[in-house]
Amino acid sequence: MVETLTIQPAASLQGEVTVPGDKSISHRAVMFGAVAQGTTRVTGFLPGADCLSTIDCFRRMGVAIEREEETVVTIHGRGWNGLTEPDSFLDVGNSGTTIRLMLGILAGSPFYSAVIGDESIARRPMDRVVEPLRRMGAQIEGRKGGSFTPLGVRGGNLSSIEHVSRVASAQVKSCLLLAGLRADGITRIQEPYRSRDHTERMLPAFGIELQQSENEVSLSGDQQLSSPGEVRVPGDISSAAFLIAAALIVPNSHITIRNVGLNPTRTGILDSFREMGGAIEIVETGEWSGEAVGDITVTSSALKGVEVKGDRIPRLIDEIPILAVVATQANGRTVIRDAAELKVKETNRIAVTAQEMRRLGAVVEETADGLVIEGRTPLKGSHCNSHGDHRIGMATAIAGLIADGGVTVGRAGAIDISFPGFEHTLHRLTNG
């Protein structure tokens, strides 16, 4: 694993590339395939550390999962009742998606399991899913009353609930939907804004009926998943966002990214870049497993500062570090609000983004729920640190493309969590 990554300024970016498969969809394809009847073949799977943690956890519960190729996975589903009690810890590594969604499955499974993760997971709040799962009847214990890992889960008979979430969180929503499939009655989840809806799009492909309105989703229990045979994973728009950003801010650039997922609950970053004046062309080319897919063409652009807040935030929550980099090159001030959720990601991304941007000479103010970035500011080369966070690592690397003297990123191996081959892809674009 690469410990440091040095990126030098680029004259331009040119060419056509693809990005690795969508992380959120890859997780769900493995989990749903594991508890479905039948065999599911997943193509375009993201072979990053987080998704491999999901595979490992379900293998420990008796599910046969084969990797035919790096990006092709076959899951031999065992149905709800086919999971077996693991004989060792279920280690989710650095993956918040794995632990929170898997807890929804474990809550309805009639055995004991113990769930752990790395130091970052140990700091991330689990009470947002533990509390409603307890209300449904699951027995969950853990550090600080079950707020933090390690967690012990004894699943069993569940009852449906109506849950009003304080935050727009796809992980909370998905966890409770999965638990609701094992519960008596109808489980209903409401959110302040609509979070990403990959679960709602994929479950019908596995034979599940659910009902949706703008900020609410519900389903009835006692439904069995059945394999659709194949799940095709599009390119991850969160990964594509870093290349889009690079093309916008590096002069004389023109790139196309093929086969990117265009789920409307994920395209907030495209909306914001366009509001800033970014020349971005999107051509939808089809639908893969319920997800819109298309090609994105980007040309370097003169940008202006914008305000990003409210229901836009859940649609670009993972892209805010790279949005901050782009904002340094926009004329005027960019204000990001309502993003306090960033504090409980792999790092406190508000604090860490501000810290690393200042190393590069950016003028950034950290607020209680976001950032204020002044532009247009020349960036200077420096040594940065990913802090073990893949999004921070990639954001600082992209800054290196325009920083005088380039940027060296420490703990760069974290980038492989979501974008294996990131350095190679950048090299292709900078060498046209």
UniProtKB/TrEMBL annotation:
Give the enzyme's EC designation: 2.5.1.19
Catalytic residues at 318
According to its UniProt record, this protein's enzyme class is: transferase
Question: Key word Transferase present in the record?
Answer: yes
Report residues binding 3-phosphoshikimate.
23-24, 28, 169, 171, 318, 345
State where phosphoenolpyruvate binds. Answer: 23, 96, 124, 171, 349, 391
PROSITE patterns assigned to the protein according to its UniProt record, in alphabetical order: EPSP_SYNTHASE_1, EPSP_SYNTHASE_2
Q: Which GO molecular-function terms appear in the entry?
A: 3-phosphoshikimate 1-carboxyvinyltransferase activity
Localisation per UniProt entry = Cytoplasm
Task: Identify the GO cellular component terms for this protein.
Answer: cytoplasm
Pathway named in the protein's UniProt entry:
Metabolic intermediate biosynthesis; chorismate biosynthesis; chorismate from D-erythrose 4-phosphate and phosphoenolpyruvate: step 6/7
Q: Where is the Enolpyruvate transferase domain?
A: 8-426
GO BP terms in the entry: amino acid biosynthetic process; aromatic amino acid family biosynthetic process; chorismate biosynthetic process
Predominant location of this chain? cytoplasm
Q: How does it assemble?
A: Monomer.
Family, according to the entry, reads as follows: Belongs to the EPSP synthase family.
Annotated function: Catalyzes the transfer of the enolpyruvyl moiety of phosphoenolpyruvate (PEP) to the 5-hydroxyl of shikimate-3-phosphate (S3P) to produce enolpyruvyl shikimate-3-phosphate and inorganic phosphate.
Q: What is this protein called?
A: 3-phosphoshikimate 1-carboxyvinyltransferase
| Origin species | Desmospora activa DSM 45169
Gene it is expressed from:
aroA
